[in-house]
Amino acid sequence: MIAGIVAALRLHSKVADQQWHGCGALRKLARIAANRAVIAEEGGLVAVIVALQQHPWDVGVQVEGCAVLSLLDKNNANSVAIAEEGGLAIVIAALVRHTDDARVQEQGCKALIDLSKDNADRKVAIAQQGGIAAVIAALIQHTS
To answer: How far apart are CA 80 and CA 8, in angstroms?
Structure first.
């Protein structure tokens, strides 16, 4: 099942709606710990990052993509891969680009929390890439 979803993400990389649904499916599967490594092994982690890069203005892709990265980060090997593949900058860009969308802000902030947990280097990288300012802006914009 995971391989099929990843294959569909790759095949339909230019179709935002397909990316949104594919990332959503991976999000559901990534809730199960055993699936997190499999998703990465099948190329799902990279496929999600590509989806976020190729559809920066699609709110659905950004919400689901950030949520998947947050869940995949709970596997240590995935955590390293997300950072190496540019995941920090992509999540920060989503926060900056979609300041008015509470769903993107929630999932983006959650992803940054998970990606920085117990990792001083990533905390520094997030700060250097504007992540702290993006999180503060989200808190100010969405106070209710």
So the answer is: 25
Contacts of 22 (CB under 8 A, 6+ apart): 5, 6, 8, 9, 12, 47, 51
Q: Could you write out the DSSP letters of every residue in 54-82? A: H-TT-HHHHHHHHHHHHHHTTSHHHHHHH
* Residue-range domains of the chain with CATH: 2-141 (1.25.10.10)
- Torsion region of 58: left, alpha or beta (phi above 0 gives left; psi -120 to 50 gives alpha): beta
Contact call for residues 64 and 20 (beta carbons, < 8 A): yes
Predicted TM-score (pTM) of this structure: 0.95
Span 7-29, pLDDT tens digits: 999 999 999 999 999 999 999 99
Rounded distance between C-alpha atoms, residue 143 and residue 56, angstroms: 24
What kind and span of H or E run contains 88?
helix 87-97
d(CA 18, CA 76) in angstroms, rounded, equals 28
Q: Which residue has the tokens 């596997």?
A: 75
Nearest to 21 by CA among 81, 78, 64: 64
Q: What are phi and psi of 86, to 5 degrees?
A: 90, 15
Work out the number of other CB atoms within 10 angstroms of the CB of residue 120: 8
